[in-house]
Amino acid sequence: MKELEDRIRKDGIVKAGGVLKVDAFLNHQCDTQLFDHMGAEWARLFADAPINKILTIEASGIGLACMASRHFGNAPVVFAKKAQSINLDGEQYSTTIYSFTKQREFPVIVGRRFLSEGDHVLILDDFLANGCALEGLISICESAGATVEGIGIAIEKGFQSGGDKLRQRGYHLESLARIVSMDDETGQIEFA
Questions:
Q1: 131 is in an annotated binding site
Q2: Residue 131 pLDDT level (bands cut at 50, 70, 90)
Q3: Would you tell me how many other CB atoms lie within 10 Å of the CB of residue 116?
Q4: In the chain, count of helices (H) and strands (E)?
Q5: Where does xanthine bind (predicted)?
Q6: Domain count, the chain
């Protein structure tokens, strides 16, 4: 998606260790017009899928998923929580995932009443690097008996293995910006 790639070139900051900082528009401050255009593009890319739920993970995926929802007939957005709280009641699906950016493991939890057998799920997230978060969300869908119809990613680090592994397993994965290389010294970013 050229609009997203252009925005990454303009406002993205490449840092050491394979980190791309896009907090000016994607995961700290949110450009809702861009999010809306991204949602429309995912709707085009997944037009043939019978999606009735959108699943993401807190916190950065929530804004994207909510804006995308209106392009999928206002499908309910369910987000996996990263910590147990007194607000989580009833039975739950849970798994543990490793965060590339936070460099630690944490639990992810979805209440069973929000995801069930017969649901056709689109998983959306802001980044895909090694795929650990997505693997956790897929595991939760499998536990619920829900069908993963597709995976939509804002920015994929194509030089890391997560996207290729998921595609090899047969998942319909669409990344709106797929980075093949980035250089923290020059700030140069190359897209597929």
A1: yes
A2: very high
A3: 11
A4: 5, 10
A5: 20, 27, 157
A6: 1
Is 130 annotated as ligand-binding? yes
Convert the pLDDT of each residue in 42-90 to its tens digit: 999 999 999 999 999 998 999 999 999 999 999 999 999 987 665 666 7
141: CATH: 3.40.50.2020
Give pTM, 2 decimals: 0.94
Q: Rounded mean pLDDT of the chain?
A: 94
The secondary structure element, H or E, covering residue 67 is helix 60-69
| Residue 154 labelled as part of a binding site | no
For the beta carbon of residue 16, count every other beta carbon within 10 angstroms.
7
| 59 marked as part of a ligand binding site | no
Range of the domain at 149: 2-191
The owner of tokens 């010294």 is 185
Check the annotation: does 173 bind a ligand: no
Report the pLDDT value the prediction gives residue 99, as an integer from 0 to 100. 75
The answer to the question of whether 87 is labelled as a binding residue is no
Q: Is 20 annotated as a binding residue?
A: yes
